[in-house]
Amino acid sequence: MEDKNLVRTADKIQEALIRLKHGRYLELMRQLTTFAGQLQELTTQSRKMGASLANGWFSAAERCCKGVSTQLSDIPHSVSRIRQLTDAPQKEIPKLSSLVDELNQVQEEFGSLELDNAESTMSVITEPITLDDVYLGPFRVQLELKKFSELYTASPYHVIALSPNPAATDETVTHPHVSNDKLCEGDGCVTIRTALEQGRLFDFFTMVRSILNTYNPDSPYVALIDWSGEPCYDCGYVASRDDTYYCSYCEHDYCSECSTYCRCCDESCCVGCSEQCPHCEDHVCMNCMKECTECNSLYCSSCLEENVCPNCKEEMEKDNEDQECKISETNQNGNPSQPETSEAEIKLAS
Amino acid sequence: MRLLYINNDGGGFADYVQVSEGTTVEQFFKDKMQGSKPDDFLIRVNRQPVPRECVLKEGDRITITPTKIEGAEI
Asked: How far apart are alpha carbons A308 and A291 in whole angstroms?
């Protein structure tokens, strides 16, 4: 980049830093207004509480307690935000020459520094990045000078994959710590913000690069182990490892649509390896399907009673009842002590 | 002598510090970054990479930036 252009860019950065300084005080004022409102609300609740107690209105006093509790839970967040804004010592806006030095240093480190005057952006390109043998390609780190003043509420830069190899399960994740072109800074959050506040552009770009070159397996958008995803053996849909289910019968992985679970033993299995019980119509695994000893049909073990299916059981019970009826009838017909006397016989006798 | 020390590790800070005459970059690093390895950091003096035996001078600007920083999911 030519010296003139560098100076022009440095000038733009200086203007952005002045706007940022102004933005910081505005944000502090906004936070202080919120905090003052919270304190005002506590005072109101205190007055209401006094009136409630004076009149013996305990349910109103209880409502005041809830109001106070809500305010107390919001106050620590406000205090912490205000502390962040007030505690960081405010540095002087760097001189133009210092900013030019920064830009020169960035150029030397990254080989080039691209400037888009129309969009007021400056960007560098990292070397191709590979983490745990997963190629993620080079990234463009693009700082938007127009958004510099929003540093306290939004990220003023984007991290754009130039040869994207996104996670199979989420196209917006181009790096374990980048989603929708936004970098989750993690441990680098405070230092990156401080570097931008102080116009230390070289430190900003190198720290972003350091995060891109590091994999934190404890908190990625998509873990590298799941980067390529797992294709469903049946339909081919690529799902993350957490969303695939192993069928121990056919020993393959399936997506949630192509897998089910056994309602008897709760084991997951694919739809193909499960069967539907003809009685309860539940899907069960092959191990839990048993043969009825009477009709030889397959039923789930929950529907079998002493290895007999409900239909056979019903028939057996019906047979038993019929047999019992026959036995009782036979017993009644064959009893000589109570002979039946016909009406004719009675008439004749009379 | 006084020099500007910019530490981009952890919380990070930029401030002036006093060091004794003849302090080398390696000694400075050992003193300020105890338990850390120089290989894990990008060290620049007056914006330039320097050998570890380079002797620091009054008014120097020394920057220490980690080359590995763990990102995280929001």
From this structure: 8
Q: Structure pTM?
A: 0.69
3-class DSSP state of A327: helix
Residue numbers of A between 61 and 120 with CB closer than 8 Å to B: 91, 101, 104-105
In a domain, B17, yes or no: yes
**Looking at residue A242, what is its pLDDT?**
78
A247-251 — which CB contacts under 8 Å span 24+ positions? A247/A273, A249/A273, A249/A285, A249/A286
What is the residue range of B43's domain? 2-66
Among all residues of chain B, which has the CA nearest to that of A199?
A: B14
Relative orientation angle of helices A58-87 and A3-55, to the nearest 10 degrees: 160
**What CATH number has the domain bearing residue B37?**
3.10.20.30
Calculate the CA A172 to chain-centre distance.
15
Residue of A nearest to B41 (CA): A210
Q: What is the pLDDT of residues B10-63, one digit of tens each?
A: 777 788 999 999 999 999 999 999 989 999 999 999 999 999 899 999 999 999
Q: Is B24 within a domain? A: yes
Check if the beta carbon of residue A228 is closer than 8 Å to that of residue A217. no
B49, part of any domain? yes
Q: Is residue B31 part of a domain?
A: yes
ipTM: 0.85
Is A242 in contact with A219 (CB distance < 8 Å)? no
Residue A99's Cβ-count burial label (10 Å; 0-12, 13-18, 19+) is buried
Structure tokens, A185: 């800074």
Total domains in chain B come to 1
Encoded tokens for B7: 């530490």
What is the fold, at CATH topology level, of the domain defined by A96-222?
Ubiquitin Conjugating Enzyme (3.10.110)
**Over chain A (350 residues), what is each successive 10-residue block's mean pLDDT?**
80 90 88 94 94 93 92 91 80 89 93 87 95 95 89 90 91 94 90 90 95 93 87 84 86 89 89 88 88 88 88 86 81 59 50
B8 to A207: CB separation less than 8 angstroms, yes or no: yes
The answer to whether the beta carbons of residues B4 and B60 sit under 8 Å apart is yes
Burial class (CB in 10 A: 0-12, 13-18, 19+), A170: middle
Nearest CB to A184: which of B44, B67, B73? B73
Q: How far out from the chain centre does Cα A5 lie? A: 45
